[in-house]
């Protein structure tokens, strides 16, 4: 299917989920993550939930990261440039929702992409080859292109894979893993642990 079709289809599927279903699926995803060999790293980039989009609740993942004493990094969007800047989440970090309802750090200690070991990636859909469909603005593709080649790219999805996204491009950055409530999809990555 085409990205545009998948975007419409999976936005509609998300709207059918109620809060309890999202919470339950989010907890299942967090439990899947705990079983993965991804916890020997230090810098983990996480997205915070856009409530109005019925996204996965990443609070569970955040608690895991804090419990494992990891450095958590959040992004701030620049909609004019289409870029993300990244900040360390500390007890002094102030968060503010932007015009799209994304909670973002106001300011803080900036972290370069080269420091990031693991990036958790929001998405609407993904296929069995590790291609993903986001909201269509290209923020994450531009961001991931600046990360180290060995940075683990892990999609978090409320739904299972589709067979194929037919209109991928060379700018699209493939996932290393995608985690759903039911299973962990691996796309040929070797981990350090």
Question: In brief, what are we looking at here?
Answer:
The chain has helices spanning 3-15, 19-34, 59-67, 139-145; strands spanning 43-45, 71-78, 83-88, 95-97, 103-105, 118-122, 125-126, 132-133, 152-156, 177-179, 184-186. The chain is α/β, with parallel strands linked by helices and 193 residues long. The radius of gyration is 16 Å and the shape is globular.
Explain what the structure shows.
The structure is a single chain. The protein is α/β, with parallel strands linked by helices. It is built from 4 helices and 11 strands; from the N terminus they run H-H-E-H-E-E-E-E-E-E-E-H-E-E-E. The strands form 3 sheets. The protein has a 7-stranded mixed sheet with strand order 3-2-1-6-9-10-11, with helices on both faces. Strands 4-5 form a two-stranded antiparallel sheet. The longest helix has 16 residues, at 19-34. The protein starts with a helix and ends in a 7-residue tail after the last strand.
């Amino acid at each position: 299917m085409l990205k545009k079709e998948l975007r419409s289809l999976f936005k509609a599927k998300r709207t059918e989920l109620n809060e309890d279903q999202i919470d339950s699926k989010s907890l299942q995803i967090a439990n899947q993550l705990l079983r993965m060999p991804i916890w020997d790293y230090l810098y983990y980039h996480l997205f915070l939930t856009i409530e109005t989009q019925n996204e996965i609740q990443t609070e569970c993942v955040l608690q895991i990261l804090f419990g494992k004493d990891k450095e958590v990094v959040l992004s701030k969007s620049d909609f004019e440039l289409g870029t993300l800047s990244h900040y360390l989440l500390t007890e002094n970090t102030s968060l503010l929702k932007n015009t799209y309802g994304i909670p973002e750090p106001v300011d803080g200690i900036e972290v370069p992409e080269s420091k990031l070991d693991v990036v958790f990636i929001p998405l609407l859909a993904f296929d069995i080859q590790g291609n993903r469909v986001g909201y269509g603005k290209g923020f994450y593709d531009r961001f991931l292109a600046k990360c180290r080649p060995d940075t683990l790219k892990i999609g978090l999805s409320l739904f299972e894979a589709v067979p194929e996204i037919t209109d991928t491009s060379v700018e699209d950055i493939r996932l290393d893993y995608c985690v759903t409530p039911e299973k962990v999809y691996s796309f040929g990555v070797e981990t350090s642990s």
